[in-house]
Design goal:
Elements lengths: L23 H12 L6 H31 L4 H30 L9 H17 L5 H19 L2 E4 L2 E4 H5 L7 H16 L2 H21 L5 H8 L7 H14 L1 H15 L25 H15 L1 H12 L3 E4 L9 E3 L8 E6 L3 H20 L5 H4 L3 H14 L11 H34 L5 H15 L10 H5 L6 H5 L5 H19 L1 H13 L6 H7 L8 H20 L1
Parallel strand pairs: 3-5
Antiparallel strand pairs: 1-2, 4-5
Helix pairs in contact: 1-3, 2-3, 3-4, 3-5, 5-8, 8-9, 10-17, 10-24, 11-17, 12-13, 14-16, 16-21, 16-22, 17-18, 17-21, 17-24, 21-22, 21-24, 22-23
């Protein structure tokens, strides 16, 4: 099937073509007009949903640009104020209308006549939103949104000096691949020291977030925020009990593998104790891999990789280049991490990251590129509800892209042996990903089941949970304080609570997509893109089935995929 990237085209039927949001008062007439709409037929109901989608897509993109500008330059007061204006003024006022609109749709006698394709999923979500909506939570959401931005501001400004040059933490972490063990230790301790210097500030911020989230849950009639989060995230396909099953399965199937991996690393390095700064260096003493020098080079090589796989994929990124939708290099005053931010009205997303020349950065752009392709494949679906797919599907798009591009990684390296090293490193990193996701997810369950805990109790719980899923070989002596605060590195805990188990579910799905790709690349790629093109018009299990894989995270399935992964690592090592 030949796919074509249609150019950006914004067509408005409900909003004025020249409308620009300046204040709540400027957009209020559209909210009132929509609320006053009479629904006397199925056609009226569909038009109402389309007009609502247009308005919400505009507002979503307007908010997105404010967030993007703030995260690209978090020291800019104008960007901060612009973001806060939306959070404090637009969001709270819009929330009241949204619940009324949900009820308007659900109470319409024509709702039962809506087409099954897509609308059944939308109606399921609207029903759940109505169930959990409480007007008294609106100011709490505003407070939470403002608090969450403090994490990026606190961590994005952290810098360390290395060899007389100031570096961001992302840039400094590249030194952990150095063959000079003393240099690695020096850099690790400087980076850790910078993080520990703000540990109390982050503990206090987290306490505030937990308290307000727990109150949101109580207001909505839930016993704890975990149960509220499952409802608000629309987790119709699995339960907390399934998450606990996943935790147990990872402890039994993956942790023994990372123990063997760590023991092997310790032996080959010839060290008496494997320290935290020994985890990224090449065990054979080869120089660190350097897949690119600048963000521009990284982007050009990634476009080439996508082109080789399928011209449609390359064209997705080329169109984004035309629209200036990338900010890739790490620098001071930039938020940590990386993301693909969908832009719902224009359809072409924005990719943000902190590239510092490492293989991890290369994989990050491939990952975010998968998200971007997903956004572009679904940009022309009729409603924003169809385009707002759940994270279990979104992360399948990105994590699969990391793996199915591996045949083309020679593009990043002049030496084929370097490409092979990069592949082995990435596959070994996947082994580390699943236990880390289990750790963060189990930690969140404990946090919100015990919302009145103290920072000391939280530290104790973290160390216990971390011990269940980390290798038994790494020696943390003299750095126990660093280990105790490792959770503070995970921005999801602060900014998007309970959004993390999705990475593991999708990672398993991605391994299955890759396994299919290894057997029949053309067929597997087509099924993968067909699945992504569905957006959220089908249940998650049907989307996974369209991709030719299972929605499954049982112990037996995880073991099956881990055996496949171990086989692939062995084949690369022996080639």
């Amino acid at each position: 099937m030949t796919r074509v990237v249609s150019p950006q085209k914004i067509t408005r039927k409900f909003l004025a073509a020249d409308f620009t949001l300046s204040s709540w008062e400027s957009v209020l007439p559209y909210f009132e007009k929509l609320s006053e709409t009479k629904i006397n037929s199925l056609e009226d109901l569909i038009e109402f949903c389309q007009n609502r989608s247009e308005l919400e897509s505009y507002l979503s993109e307007n908010f997105a640009w404010r967030y993007i500008k703030m995260s690209c330059d978090n020291q800019n007061e104008a960007h901060q104020q612009s973001y806060q204006q939306f959070v404090n003024e637009i969001m709270p006022n819009a929330s009241v209308f949204e619940d009324a609109w949900n009820n308007k749709v659900m109470q319409s006698p024509f709702a039962a006549e809506l087409p099954q394709e897509g609308y059944s999923i939308m109606l399921r979500g609207l029903k759940k939103s109505i169930e959990i909506f409480r007007e008294e939570n609106i100011p709490l959401f505003t407070e939470l949104q403002n608090l969450q931005t403090q994490y990026g501001a606190a961590t994005g400004g952290l810098m360390v000096e290395i060899d007389g040059v100031e570096k961001t933490l992302q840039q400094a972490n590249a030194y952990l691949e150095s063959n000079d063990r003393e240099k690695r230790k020096e850099v690790y301790e400087k980076v850790s020291g910078a993080r520990l210097a703000i540990q109390e500030k982050l503990d206090d911020l987290f306490d505030q977030l937990i308290g307000k989230r727990h109150q949101v849950a109580l207001n909505a009639g839930f016993a704890n925020y975990r149960d509220y989060a499952f409802a608000s995230l629309g987790r119709f396909d699995y339960t907390p009990a399934d998450c606990f099953e996943f935790h147990s399965a990872v402890a039994k199937t993956v942790v023994p593998m990372i123990n063997r991996q760590a023991e092997k690393r310790k032996s080959v390095l010839g060290v008496t104790a494997l320290k935290p700064w020994d985890k990224a260096v090449d065990v054979l003493g080869r120089e660190p891999l350097k897949p690119f020098e600048t963000g521009e080079e990284l982007l050009n090589k990634t476009i080439e990789v996508f082109d080789q796989m399928d011209p449609f994929l390359g064209n997705c990124l080329k169109e984004m280049v035309k629209l200036d939708r990338f900010d890739l290099d790490s620098r001071k005053g930039k938020n940590p991490g990386g993301y693909n931010y969908p832009l719902e009205e224009s359809g072409f997303p924005f990719i943000f990251m902190n590239a510092a020349g490492q293989v991890r950065d290369m994989v990050t752009l491939l990952h975010e590129g998968g998200h971007a392709v997903h956004s572009i494949l679904t940009k022309d679906l009729a409603l924003n509800a169809f385009r707002n797919f759940p994270s279990e599907v979104a992360e399948l798009a990105s994590m699969s892209m990391e793996l199915i591009t591996m045949d083309y990684w020679d593009t990043y390296f002049a030496d084929p042996q370097a490409a092979k090293r990069a592949k082995i490193k990435h596959l070994e990193d996947i082994l580390d990903t699943l236990p880390w996701v289990a750790t963060i997810d189990a930690f969140q369950h404990w946090i919100y089941e015990n919302p009145s805990h103290s920072p000391a109790e939280r530290a104790q719980a973290w160390n216990r949970i971390y011990g269940q899923f980390s290798d038994r070989i790494t020696d943390w002596s003299a750095h126990e304080d660093v280990k105790t605060k490792l959770w503070q590195k995970q921005l999801h805990l602060f900014e998007v609570p309970f959004y993390y188990i999705e990475y593991a579910i999708a990672q398993l799905g991605a391994l299955a997509v890759w396994r299919n790709y290894c057997q029949n690349p053309t067929q597997a790629l087509d099924k993968y893109l067909n699945a992504l093109s569905l957006g959220y018009t089908k249940p998650i299990k049907e989307i996974y089935a369209t991709a030719g894989i299972e929605f499954n995270f049982s112990q037996a399935y995880i073991q099956e995929l881990m055996d496949f992964l171990a086989q692939k690592i062995q084949q690369l090592e022996e080639s």
